[in-house]
Amino acid sequence: MFNKIKTMLLMFIALISFNATFALNNQLGNITIDDPWVRSAPPNAPILGAFMEISNHSDGDIKLLSANTNGYKRLELHKTVPQDGMMKMIKQDFMLISAHSKLTLKPGSWHIMMIKPNEVPREGDSVAIKLVFDNGLSKTIYAKVRKEGVMDHKKMIHHQH
Ligand SMILES: [Cu+2]
């Protein structure tokens, strides 16, 4: 009798877990990644920065827990913040993307730090980066290697006048 209840209880728990997984699966479909890019760097660069826009279209907050790729020692989640009158990159445990909002990763702000590449990618190359979120699911994006964003390019032209 007791065993029968126990079995039923386990089945019930399994069913709940299954439903939870299914719900989270739908939630991941509510994350979109726009304009992923890696800033081009000299062939001997020890680090590279990856940037993108992460939009959370769901009703709940989502955390980006880690980023992975092949050919690097490791990837870290960073935020550049002013500290003691200097801009410093601080390693973060996660990036929070609030419900129905967008987190922009850009130079001088949030970014994914790619540390010690086996080989620095060239301009025009695509780098596959796997993003792991706190709902246990992941998404692989392809970041194009390019120079600084358009805004900075305009600024540079402006300074020449
Ligand atoms: Cu960094």
UniProtKB/TrEMBL annotation:
Q: Name one Pfam family in it.
A: PCuAC
User: What keywords would UniProt list here?
Assistant: Signal
Q: Which residues form the signal peptide?
A: 1-22
Q: Which residues form a coiled coil?
A: none
Signal as UniProt keyword: yes
Indicate what this protein is called per its UniProt record.
Answer: Copper metallochaperone, bacterial analog of Cox17 protein
| Species | Bathymodiolus thermophilus thioautotrophic gill symbiont
Q: What is the lineage of its organism?
A: Bacteria, Pseudomonadati, Pseudomonadota, Gammaproteobacteria, sulfur-oxidizing symbionts
